[in-house]
Amino acid sequence: MPRKVILDVDTGSDDAVALCEAVLSPDIELVAACTVWGNQPVENTTDNTLRLFDALGVDVPVYKGANTAMTKYLCHDYVEFNANKIRPKAMKDGKEVHMHSAHLPIAPTDRKPEDMPAACFYVDYLRHATEKVTLIPVGPLTNLGLALRIAPDIIENIEEIVIMGGGSKVTNADPWSEANIMHDPEAAQIVAECGARVVWVPLDATHKAVITLDDCKRFREIGTFAANFCAYECEQRIFMHDVGQPLDIPHSAAVHDALCVAYVIDPTVLTDLRHVHVEVGLSGYGEGQTIIDQRAYTRPKNGWFAYDGDRFKFVDILCDCFKRDKSTAKVIEE
Ligand code: RIB
Ligand code: CA
Predict the structure, then answer these.
(1) How do 303-306 and 273-276 pair as beta strands?
(2) Residue 80 CA from chain centroid, whole number
(3) 101 CA distance to ligand 1 centroid (A)?
(4) What is the pLDDT of residues 275-324, one digit of tens each?
(5) What residue ranges define each of the domains in the chain, with the CATH number in brackets?
(6) Which atom of ligand 1 lies at the shortest distance from residue 256's CA?
(7) Residue partners of 67: CB distance under 8 A and separation at least 6
């Protein structure tokens, strides 16, 4: 029986790979996608999600969600601080390349999101669900944080929450934080403490289970739309990693969000999953940090935190999904 899943995305290159994987896996029934800002404003992440579903030829409903954090950006200093962050520019053939382009390289769509906001959808759907649902939030946790704040009882119908976010020894947004958690630490802390089974897929794991240029070749040999599209997105990510964030394996990229979906398909893809107390730093230096209680006399364990992943198994899972695609869509390469 496939597992019912809701993905919460800020689509985004790695979100797009995760969506293809979830749509195509026989082990997953994707009941909806919620969208959130993060990699791009929510208008773009919603449009990207809709055009990808259109390209894949599936009719999964999309619920548009938050365009900013619950509370964090009420303070002007943060907006200015983030606007002033130094980002390395990456140029390829005279053009600037981004980790996440504003529009996915596929045909535009006239599909629209549902009327109900994402946070309300969580409450409505989970309160009426007749079987448990797995949630995979792979952007800032604002939608789910809001839903849990107003309806904490929805955890009764949550199988598990698989979060792409955080980092113990590896960070990317600040010296102490990962982007998804940095964007909305209060929402992340609400989810961390909600009482459902929470699995964290942090940078420690996603930087181990990487995709290489050779893996992209393997995707392209499959030849379906999903395989070519995901190869293109992974190649862009590899280029960006090479320029500004090189990983241990040369010419490779973390495709964070897709590893979460792979875990739902086959949990053994995460190879060092530890039961720990996780909490999120909420102010000053350390804001947005996922703090793991390493002490023997730890605070109550509230989550599972992954430290490693099997990159070969990950690539096999992706290939199995891409082979199933029957879409006739095309990648519009620049
Ligand atoms: O830090 C990695 C995460 O930030 C991924 O979910 C990526 O899509 C971005 O949102
Ligand atoms: Ca994401």
Answers:
(1) antiparallel
(2) 26
(3) 13
(4) 999 999 999 899 999 999 999 999 999 999 999 999 999 999 999 999 99
(5) 3-322 (3.90.245.10)
(6) 5
(7) 37, 41, 42, 43
